Amino acid sequence: MNDLNEWKKLKEGKKNEKNFGWNCIENLIKKEKYTLSMIFESFANIIIDFIKDSDDCDYCYTYIDSIFSYYKIIKNVKSEIINVSLNYLTNLNDYLLDNKMLIEVWVNILYSLINNEIFTISDFEKLTNLTKEQYSTIYEVSCKTVKQFTPKQQKQFFTEMNKLNFFKVYPEIFTNMRNN
Fold first, then answer.
1. Which domain holds residue 156?
2. What is the pLDDT at residue 2?
3. Which CATH number covers residue 96?
4. What pLDDT shows up at residue 8?
5. Which residue, 1, 35, 73, 160, shows the most beta carbons closer than 10 Å to its own?
């Protein structure tokens, strides 16, 4: 949490991200033998209480995106990050009871994961046996995420989503989220 607070101070001061010392992350990786998926999971836990407003969502996005952009994500860690993401997306509707801003931040996190080629739309197929509310929340996050990409990419992503069984479970909800 301290690292995220320092990041926020840096961003509030409009300072260059290159001036940020990644000492905490480097310490966790080199000395404590944390993997990036472990750091990501800790980050996902921390943001539940950290997010207070839209600016905080932006700080969280730029923070995690900088980590994903900087560090090379190896295949087994990539798989672990996908699993952490799917776990949090599955439980997001419950976390929303504590903090409604989590939708916005998870839209940005998912955007970063896709943009950094860690997560793909087809990864949603790994999710099964969810409640209608869980599907609805994930549909909302995924559709809002896709809408952050270029129109050409949006068309490609929505075409892929239409083919996946995950998005066919509640087609009326998916269609509604897609069209909003």
1. 2-179
2. 61
3. 1.25.40
4. 74
5. 73
Confidence (pTM): 0.88
Long-range contacts of 169-174 (CB under 8 A, 24+ apart): 169/130, 169/135, 170/132, 170/135, 170/136, 170/139, 173/132, 173/135, 173/136, 173/139, 174/139, 174/143
Give the count of domains, the chain.
1
Number of neighbours of residue 112 by Cβ within 10 angstroms = 22
DSSP letter string over the chain?
-HHHHHHHHHHHTT--GGG---HHHHHHHHTS---HHHHHHHHHHHHHHH--SHHHHHHHHHHHHHHHHHS---HHHHHHHHHHHHHHHHHHHHHTTT-TTHHHHHHHHHHHHHHTTS--GGGGGG--S--HHHHHHHHHHHHHHHTTS-HHHHHHHHHHHHHSGGGGSSHHHHHHHHH-
